[in-house]
Design goal:
With 160 residues, the protein is mainly alpha-helical. It is 54% helix and 4% strand. Strands 1-2 form a two-stranded antiparallel sheet. Helix 3 crosses helix 9 and helix 5 crosses helix 6.
């Protein structure tokens, strides 16, 4: 789905998605995890991240110390040099990239550091994790970034 079209659709669905989040907060967590896991599998049978890469083009993952250590080692750099060259501290005191797109995103949408990428990248868009209720607000935000999350939310509306 085109990035601008996704933003428009997510904006149009924002009110209904907020209502959905309120409903999902009251659902049995295990049941929700199972439903979201199934939807994740269904959605990713149709969506290829390499045709989109909107997450890598528009947002930064959060970097934990282990991520910084792993990635700097992969690049043959000292951790401090990696931080100085690529990262900044955001308003929540988290390390994030200095800007977007990700400096490791290729023109073909492949990640040049895929094997060493941060945990947040490995887990994105977080629709196949346990305790999905804990990240409902994050997922709501991600409906405007990731077509897969948008589709999961649209399907959740039909089930809840």
């Amino acid at each position: 789905m085109d990035r601008n079209l996704l933003k428009e659709k997510a904006k149009a669905a924002k009110k209904s998605n907020k209502k959905l989040v309120k409903r999902l907060e009251r659902v049995n967590g295990r049941k929700l995890d199972q439903v979201v896991s199934n939807l994740h599998d269904e959605v990713f049978e149709k969506i290829d991240c390499l045709t989109c890469a909107n997450c890598c083009s528009t947002t930064s993952p959060l970097f934990k110390e282990k991520d910084i250590e792993r990635l700097s080692k992969h690049l043959g750099m000292k951790a401090g040099d990696f931080v100085q060259e690529y990262l900044r501290i955001d308003e929540d005191d988290d390390y994030v990239f200095k800007g977007a797109p990700c400096p490791f995103l290729g023109v073909d949408n492949y990640c040049s550091v895929y094997e060493a990428r941060p945990r947040a990248c490995r887990e994105y868009p977080h629709t196949d994790r346990k305790q999905f209720q804990q990240i409902l607000q994050l997922s709501l935000k991600n409906t405007s970034i990731c077509p897969a999350v948008y589709e999961v939310f649209e399907s959740l509306k039909l089930q809840f």
